[in-house]
Design brief:
The structure is a single chain. The protein is mainly α. The chain has a single domain (about 10-30, about 35-120), classed as 23S rRNA-intervening sequence (de novo design (two linked rop proteins), Up-down Bundle), CATH 1.20.1440.60. It contains 4 helices and no strands. Helix 1 (about 15-30) runs antiparallel to helix 2 (about 40-60), helix 2 (about 40-60) runs antiparallel to helix 3 (about 65-90) and helix 3 (about 65-90) runs antiparallel to helix 4 (about 100-120).
């Protein structure tokens, strides 16, 4: 039986790794957005996608306080939902295709599910 690796840092969390990859994928995709979107849609979707992982990192450092840990996880889920909204605008403006939207949106949903499970089982993470 394979022994699970101990989680010592937020970077060890699969959900953090996936959130980071999502943010980097969005960063790459938005490089093709029109210049007039630089200070609006491009900045917004990049910011919200990056905030998923950064809120998770903050939550990890606040594990001493269960309620604060849960609140930061909620913030991360809200940022993932905001990212989904910006992705929908990106699709409607035809800056991304349906397949790209579906893949990124599904990844947001998976990340939200993982964060929600962490929030519901906060006692397993907090001390």
């Amino acid at each position: 039986m394979e022994k699970k690796k101990a989680i010592k840092h937020f970077r060890d969390l699969e959900v953090y790794q996936r959130a980071f990859l999502l943010a980097m994928t969005i960063y790459e995709k938005t490089k093709t957005f029109p210049p007039e979107e630089k200070y609006s849609l491009t900045d917004q979707v990049r910011r919200s996608s990056r905030s998923i992982g950064s809120n998770l990192a903050e939550a990890w450092r606040k594990r001493k306080y269960t309620a604060v840990f849960q609140n930061k996880l909620t913030d991360a889920m809200q940022e993932a939902s905001e990212t989904q909204s910006w992705l929908e605008f990106s699709l409607a403006c035809r800056y991304i295709d349906r397949n790209t939207f579906d893949n990124l949106d599904n990844e947001c949903e998976s990340i939200i599910s993982m964060l929600n499970a962490m929030e519901k089982n906060a006692d397993k993470f907090c001390f």
